[in-house]
Every structure is written in structure tokens, then in C-alpha cells.
Records
---
Amino acid sequence: MSKKLLLLSTVGLMGLSAPLFAGEATGAVAGLLGSADQWYVAPFGTYFNPAGARNADHEAGAGLAIGRIINDYFNVEVKGFWQHLDAETGGEGDIAGGSVDLQYYMMRGTFSPYTVVGIGGMDTRFANRSSASVLGEAGVGATYDVLDNLSVRGDVRYRYSFEGDGGAYAGQTQFHDMVVNVGLVIPLGQKPQALASPAPVAAAPVDDCATRDTDLDGVNDCEDRCPGTMRSARVDDTGCPIRIELRGVNFLYNSDALTESAQRILDGVAGQLLSVPEQRDIEVAGHASSEGSQAYNLRLSQRRSESVARYLKAKGLANRLYPKGYGEDYPIADNDSEAGREKNRRVELVWMGD
């Protein structure tokens, strides 16, 4: 009776833990290729521990099962078996029978634990008596893959059998035996393999304005209040222009008349400024090189800044423009070379305050 209680407790505990293992199996094995069509054979040897009422020694046996994988969790098998009986007081016999078993796999992998229940019948022959009986089995076991097409398997089962009156053992109608099976599992055809996890689908790139700087002014598009600023512009932390040097805006010699190329450049500047929602006042700052007197250069830079302001106003710029000449007071290059003097002769747009 203690053997029976021990086995029933083990089966019960494994059954209660099955949902936990099932969750792990789902993460470990996504599925089995061809699982619904996978058949296998499973020859096995048996250690048979008969019930005390049989008055028999521990004996051996053998059997063969043919099974099918139903899905990730269940196998079904048809099994035939034979076990020898050797009475402690003399006499021999054997048990032959078969059952239909249902196995529940808590996880599938290289090591695959399972629980099993079965129902069937058997014929017992002992001491010139024989009887047929019904049986039920329950137990736990596991398979372990040793090769691509070969696994070893073992399980421990409690077997209940009922013979009724007039059986092989006079006065005994019920038996509680322990059966230990160890054998092989050989797939018929290609062994099921774990499905490879599907390749992760790359998420569509998110159009994130925080990662873009369309006008290349150093302020991302999310925070840029003045998109589309000129490439040569210096901007504040909101992307709005602070200062723009009007490179290439040149004048006729010793004059405030714009060259044709300067007018084309200012046309582009006006178009960009009109597209920027920045209405602050703008100072149009004129600068000169050191050729000529300082007073003359101051007047020339003033006239040139006024010329640029008039041209931009004529193009529809709404900002208030304040032309101011600085003469040669703020050079950005050396006035000793023509290249340096050319850089110093310039016009800049400077945004004024808030």
C-alpha cells in the first residue's frame, strides 16, 4: 500500500507542475516539423516488481510500443508487453498484455519529461491457472536524445489490475504492481526538429523628427522654429538665424551698385527669408576693407548696406531692415592681402533682439 501511495503522490505532483513546464516548453520549442504525422517505434525492457499477493520475485520483461506525436504536448501509443513470474515458493508464470497510452510532455527538447496514463488488458498464467484482467497505469518518465534519430526513454508506472473471481491467484482479485520500463525511441521517417524561431521582422523605421536636421543648422527638426535657414547662417538654440554673411554679394568698384551675380544671390536670400516665420528686425551691416580713408570707407559701407536693404524690401521682405555701415572697424581677415581685403568687404544680416 505504501508503494501505491508513493507512486500516486509522485504522479499527482508531476501533474500539478505540468502547466509550469508547459510554459517553459513554449519558450524552448516553437513547434515540431511534421509533428502530427510523426510515427515511431519504442522497444523496451522492463523491471517488474509484482504485488505481494502474487508471491513472486522481482522479474524482467520486454515489450514494444508504436506511437504517434499528436502535437507539442501529447503522444499516443499502442503497447504490447510480456513479464515473467517466478514464485518465491516454486512455480513459474508470465503476464502478457497490451495497452493504449497517452503521454503528456511538459516540455520538448533534448531532455523531455512526461507523464503517462494507460488502459488495457492482460492475460496472467501461473501454476496451471490463467485469467484475463483489465489494467490501468499511471506514471512519469523522460526521453533523452542521444542521436538525431535515436532517443533513450525510461518511466516508472503504477499498475492496477482487476481479475475478478476465479483468476490465476485463488482468492485474489486486485493487484498493485510497479513497472519500470527502459528502452529506445526510433522515429519512422525524418525525426521532428524544433522549428526555428522566425526571423525578427525589422520594425519600420520611425520618422522621428528628433533625429533629423533637414537644414543642417545643428538644431533637430522637432525643436527648429525656423526650418529651411540658409546654410551659411548662424542660428540660436531654436534654429532661428542670428547672423548671415551674404557671401558673393559684391558691388561695382567704388560703388554701392549690386553686380548681377549679387542680385541673383539676394533673390535666393529673399526667398528663404520669406519662407521662415521669423519677424524680428534685421540689421543690414556693411563692412569695408582698409583701402581709402576711414571716413570714406564708413560712408561706402553705409551706402552698400542701404543698397542691400532696398533690394530685399523690393522682394517683399516684411521684416524691418536697419542698414548700418561699419567701415573698416570689424575686419575678419588680414587687410595686407587682396584675398583678405576681399573677405573684409562684406554685408551681413544680423537679427536684433526678441
---
Amino acid sequence: MNGRLVLSVFMLAAAGTSHAGLHVGMVSAVKKKAKELRDEKTSVERKDYRQDMRDFVKKISDYSRNLDGDFIVIPQNGQELVTLDGTETGRPAAKYLGAIDGVGREDLFYGYEKDNSPTDEEDTEYMKAFLDVAEENGLTILVTDYCSDKSSVLRSYEENGESGYISFAADSRELDGIPGYPEAPFNSNDDDIKDLADAENFLYLLNPDSYGSKGDFLRDLRATDYDILIIDLYFQGEDILTASDVRSLKKKDNGSDRLVIAYMSIGEAEDYRYYWDEDWNDHPPYWLCRENPDWVGNYKVMYWADEWQDIICGGDDSYLERIIGAGFDGVYLDIIDAFEYFEEK
């Protein structure tokens, strides 16, 4: 409540002012302001950041499937969204689960605290409880573990396979290359992969900075037999992949079909993306929040803001439109767990 406004009211009352109408009017104004502040506080307290993220993912799904009925949507992390109350035993969030085709999860068996180190069993079981809810509701689970020594890599694939998940053992958290081990993808096959549920493995490669050219990058991808490629829409942040580029990746080296999925962060803005406005460096929009201390140039966003959602899926120049226009089979959504940042604040 405005302290000066309250003080004025009490000063008038103490002085026994004869301006009764003014006095009543100011008291009314104070009460109105107090109610507005209470309502604002209640609104903030009641804001459901998890449901806001579910709604955003569903909006992306609805938008994309209106253009391509077979378009695949896979959110990564933020597994608590699969149940309405965010607990392992909660009722499944049916509308959210119906809007997506799979759930991605990092560090399930390796890398949660430290790369190449087993994830604590308690943490693994906590995450698995939610992933199993998603799997029981017909979704495919994609796990990225961060490990590089041969025994850990093999154990990662074995444990994920035993759980019914498809997985990728990344030898670097930078996701900057094709692992040398195993030489062929785990569960390599010559099946045609037409749907996410058909896949037995995937490659997750977002940072191609070690490649001298886009051509070299595409050549190396084409020479693999992964069932799914999860890559960025842009080569080295600037050179967009064309429909011809993406089409050339949809055949495995053995000649069978595969899926090509585009990575897209929806919980953070990245200052190297086409949508970044240099004015934001000094005059950020209200929905742009603090920089991620672990990833320079990445900024948390109020993902429920219309302005941000328009950038992602709001029209012909939106990020999603560019992905669909390039012919990708689906999208892999990152920073789904941004709700944790706002809940902690």
C-alpha cells in the first residue's frame, strides 16, 4: 500500500477536517489500492508455472500439427509435467501427454552430478517414475547419458534398454560430435523409421563447430545409421539448413529411412539466434530474465509471455515455422524445466 496516501488520510482525520467528501473519497481510494495489491499478490502466489509450460508445449503441438499432422513433439527434462500434481504417483496430465509423442531426459543413469559418473540411484528412480508414467501412456522415452569410457557407455545402453527406453551415450556435454564408440549405433538396424515408436537409437548433435563446412557436417551425418538425428536448424548458429539439406539426411547410410528432428529451446532465449535484438543488451524486454550462469548468452524467459511465444510459434517468421519449412519431422524442446527457476524465485 502507498504509505503517503495512507498518511494523508490519517492527517485529515486527525485534523478533524470538514471536507467529509474528500475524506471518504481518499479512504475509498486507499481501500481500492489495498485490494489491487492484495489481488496482485494473490495472482502471483497462485500462478501455476508448470501449467503455463504445459500450455505452451500444447500450443506448439497444436500449431505444428495444424500444418503437418505427423509432426513429432518431444519435450526434454521437466518430467514432473507428466502428472497434474507433479508427483510420481499423481494423475497423468492427459492433455499434455496427448500433445506430445515422447519425453527426453538427460543424465538418467550417467552424468547427473558429474559426467562419466553414475547418477545416484535415488535420483534415477525418481526420474524413472515419471518417465514410466509417460511410457505407460504410449510415449517414447529418449535418454541422453553423459559418459565416455567403454564400460559406462555399454552399461548406459543396457540399463536404458532394460527400462524400455532408447538412448544415446554422449561423450561430451557439448554434444559436438559423433561418438567413436560404439562404432555402429547401438541396436543398429535397416528398418524404415516412419514413426518415433519405430526407433531403436538416436544421435544428439547440436554443436558442429569442429566442422569446417556445412557440407562436411552433412556428409558425416549421412554416413551414419542412426534411426533419429536430433540437430540444430542452423549450422554453427547462422547458416540455416535448407529443405534440400534436411531431405538428404532422411536416409541412413544403409539406405533405409530415418527421422530428422530439430532442437529448439523454449525456456531460454539465446543471443546468437536470428530473433535476438541487439537493443535487448541494454534495454531488455520485460519477459527477458537473467543470464544462465552455466551457459553464457542464454537468458531465462517468462515463457508464458505472448511476445516470447510469438517468436517461437507466432507466424510466418517464427522459429517453428522455419523448422517446419525446412522439412524436419519434429521438434525437440529444451529448457522445459524453466518452471523450476520461477518456482524457486
---
Amino acid sequence: MKTSYDQTINLFNTTNIQHSNDNNSIISMINESLLVQSTRLAREGKYSEAQRLLKEVKGGATPAFLDLLARINAQQGRLAEAEKLWMEASEMDPTNESYRRGLQLIAKMQSRPVWMSYLTPFITGFVLLLCVVIIGFAMKEYFDNQHKSIMAEIANINSVQKNKNMALAKLGIPSDAIKVPGTSVIATGDEITIMFDMGLFSSKTILKPEAKTLLTTLGQKLEPYAGQISIKVVGCTDNVPIPTGSAYIDNIALGMRRATVVVDHLRKTTTFPYKTFLVSSVGENSLYNNNPNTSKYRNRSVIIKISELIR
């Protein structure tokens, strides 16, 4: 039996909060993983690589990210930038003593007595070396503490992988059965979420040729589990407003149509019955930020959620 438009909208309204929470959980997991990797790179002295990773943070920088950036800049002698970052972190978390100590250390390093200007280059070099040693000890203490955090994060990542395998096992799907290049698989409870690395739509509701190939491959990998799984397709959009006179009243409606287009493609290329599928939309409240040069186009896509079929 086909679901009417009004029924579909009601389905979205009752599940939209859950999707939003899932998105926030996924973004938080990605940010935590970025912090773990950046901290490890900083410990190894790979500061440029660590900074590049930190630029991928979504949803705005947290005090912990600002603190790590400040310490990396201080270690490299960029004291003004380190001071600015610690000040931002302190404004976000005024009670944190670590940020205050960092600012005090920077202040001490920048307020040398006048008589020091007349010292020989050798003495100046010695003072700078001493400052580096002091910062080195401070960084060592920080990274030693971070090491414990990293080990905890590694345990958490292992737990996430274990949960994914358990969720797949519960659905009767081997852990490597739905691996498709160009996708990421995440487990949340008893549900498997599949995200796409690229935007599937070239414009509006037109699937890219490579997107059709990707969806066909994914559908064929899921097809052996027809009758066991339910597939929910969640439409996504970027944050470009819908123009007046468009066929869609807003981005929620556009996302809903994109989800339907993907379902139609999966039905054409597999033997899944219609009752296998549910459609929903999060509109512009998608996973990736709407950076006009990169992530924005990745939001012109869908998210696929797989769960046990309720009979």
C-alpha cells in the first residue's frame, strides 16, 4: 500500500528529532576522533598535520580544540597566536585553570625586562632555550594526560566497532558484506547508518551517473537480506533557499523527493519489495557543514539507515 504525502510528512515529523540527535551523535563522534588523531600527531611533532586535521572540526571549535591549537602554536614559538587561542578558550570556559596558566606563561615570556635587550646574543639564546624547555615540560605534562585520554578514546573506538559488528550480526549481515567504496558505515544501537562521501545529486533530484552506480552496488550487497531488513532513506539538502515558484515549498520537501528518487532507483535495480522502504527528510539539517567550496555539495545526498524488519 502506498503511503500518502501527508502520511509521509507525519512520519518525518515524528522521527525528525531522532534523526537530529543521530546527526549530532555522529558529528560528536567524528570531532572526538579528530581530536584523538590531532593529539597523537602533536605528540609526534607533526604540528602541521595536526592543525590540518583540526580545521575539519564541524559545529564550531570547542575549548579543548582551541587549547590543543594554542599549545601547538606555543611549541612552535607563535606566542601571539597561542595567546589569542587561549583567550578564546577562556571566554568559553572561564573556570578552566589550564587555559589561565597558559596565558600567564605567555605573559611572562612577552614581558622581559629592559636590561635584557643589552645582553649578548649568547645569553639571549640561553633565555630562549630555557623558555623552550619550560614549555616542553608543560607540553609533556599535557600530552602525558592526553595519552590517557587517547587510550580511553581508542577503547571507545574499538567499542564502536564492536557495536557495529554486533548490530550487523543481529541483522544477519557479515561485518564486511556491505562495504562499498565511497561510503561510511556507523552503528547506532540496533541501527546501521550508511553515509556517502560525495553528493549523489547533480542538481535538484537528478542523480549523478556515478551515484547510480554506487547505489546499484549497495543495493546488490543488501539484496540477499531482503525480508530481514528495513531500509529508511533520509533526504538531505544544502542550505540554499528554495526560490519562489519552485516545485518544492522548502528544503524539507526537496529532501523528501530525493529520498523517494533513491528508493525508486533501488527498487528498479533490486528485488526489494516496496514495504522494505521508508522515506524521510532532514532538509538542510544535514551532516556536513555548508562550506561553499567543499562540504556544501556533499549535503546534496541521502542517508540510509538499516534496521531489523518489523513484521
---
Amino acid sequence: MKRTLINFFLMMLISVLPLAAKPLGAPAITGLEKYVDGLAKTDRFSGVVLVAKGPKILFQKAWGKADVDRARDNTLETSFDIASMGKMYTGVAIAQLVEDKKLDYKDRLVSILPYLPEDIFGKITIEQLLTHTSGLGNMFAAPTFMAIKDTAKSIRSYVDLNIHEPLLFEPGTQVQYSNYAYILLGAVIEKLSGGSYYDYVTTHIFNATNMSHSAFDEGDRYEPNAAIGYASPMAPPDAKTPPPPGRMNNKRMIGVKGTSAGGVFSSAPDLLKFSRALQKGKLISKKSFKNISQGKVSVPKPPTPPGMKPLPDLKFAYGFGESFINGERIIGHNGGAPGVDAQMDIYPDLGYTVIVLSNYDHAVMPVIDHIRNIICGK
């Protein structure tokens, strides 16, 4: 359901650029609109692009259909499945609990969730869950996930999926992107808050910042403001046979409800509110935000493809990724699944927030690259 470690890395990078950052003026905005118009006309993009500097929105526009069968257009207020971008909400929720003295990043997981087997989970800390260094794996490709994905609507139902799976490595010794680690963080939030993960995030993040178009929508119910995802058809095993035409409704391909690992629905204006609230110290202190967004562990680089420049460094933080493009710091997260693609780039030093949401898969990165070229220099 969520992208692999390599895909996460690829979503956060672009070639190193030679010139200094420059402001996003009217010609650049016009060029951006023309560029995305071209992608939409060739059915390579459907969704929303929003670019802001501080609280001022410099550009925002929607393209494509939120629901093809009902001929419902995407609008600026449409909510999109943001997949693993939701890990940022989990990272902020954990930081709130730390600020409330209910938790420490160095706490052992089993001290909070004692029902977890000591022989597997005994050495894992909260920090290791956040930074993908726990040794836990990914659950979304497992047959056990496929068996419950259409009915599971609780964090605990996902906790039970991998509870007896052995670790991939000794905690703290390697880096391996893990959705299951973030499921366990959701369980920690539930234990310490005394309520559900969904209620906690709704109350302490969405309601606290007036994010009125963000929610944990359920796929077995029609949500009139949510975009339906449209997945690219699977290519046939025979590489010589072209894939079938058209896109498919993704409702039967992903989990029925999001989790602490991702799958929440948010609109682009809501995500801007989230970005602004973090930078202004409204959800957590500015000190805490700096801590959770500052890279902690380096992500191993995949091999450089032929003809491409070496990839810039990327580090995992606490629910956020941190990278540098031409010396400019970018923090945020991406998300992807069948019929889902999303990314938010926050430029804390320059003041920009860039949000690109799509109900097509593999649609966002060309737009992100285009905007990074403008902001970071070309």
C-alpha cells in the first residue's frame, strides 16, 4: 500500500542544481500553471497544486475529476487520500505526548504496550519506531493484511498482524522503512491518551487548526467531498504486452480506513494550515517542531541510474523527511498507493509550503520537480 524505502527516497529528491534560490514571481507561476495544464490535458495529472509563502497563497488550482462516474470535479476543498503523508500527524501526536510528559523518545515500546512479546519488541524504543530503525518490517504486502483490509477499522486489528514476526535486524543498527512501526506508534498514542488514535488526531490536530476537510474516511461509505483514487492498470507479466488502457477505481485495492501509518484524507488548504501551525508553534512548540523535523538517520541511497546525477542526501526524522536541494532545506513527507500520490515540501528557511495531491498514482513527482527547479534555482 505504501511506497518502499527507495520510492520514498525518490519522491524527496531532484538533481543538484547550480544556482541560488529565487522568488516565485508571476512568470514562474504562469509557467507552473501551463506545465500542469499540459499534464492534465494528457491525463497525467488529476488533483490540486498549492504553493504558498508564509500565509500568502501564491498559486492554487484543481484539475480532473474527483468522481468520474458522478462527473464530480476536483476542487480546492476536495480531500485526497494522502497515504504515508499521514505519518507527519503521528509524529506530531507523539511530540505532543512528549511535551505533556506522558512519554519520552527513549522509552522502550514494551513499557507502554506490555502485551507485545518481549523477545521481539523488548529492545525497541519510540525513537527507533519514528526513524525506521526498529527492525520491524512492512505489513501491507502480507497475506494477513489482504485478509482484513476491507473490514479493519481499528489500530489494534493492524497491531495483531505482525505481532509474532521476527525482526529484520537488531534495533538501531540499520534503516528500513516500516509501516508497522507507525501502527505501533498509533497504539502508543491510544494507550497514553485513553482514546482512539482517530479521535486523538481529530481533536488535537484537525480541530485545533480548523482543518475542516481532513478526516479518516472509510472506503465502504460514500464521502461527497473526497476524491476517489484511480489506479494505473497493472502491466501484464509479459513485458512485450502493453498494459490495458484506462484507470481503475482503487476502493478494493487499499485498506478500508487509514491508520497511524497513513491513509487519512486531507485537502491542500488544510495541509497549509497544518504547515503554518507547526511553524508558528501552535500544535507543538517551535523547539519540538525543529526536533521532529531535523534529520536523525541517513537513508541508504539506491544505486544511481545510468545517465543520472548522484542523489542528494535524505534523512529520516520523527514522521518527517529532511533533504537539501542546492543548499536549501526541505522537510515534509510523501505518500503513495494505487490511485494515490501526494507530497508536501516545507522550505523552513525560505518560507514556502508546496502541496501537491493527486487521485492518480505516479502523478506528483513531475510537478514537485518543476517547483523545486524554480525555488531552488535552475
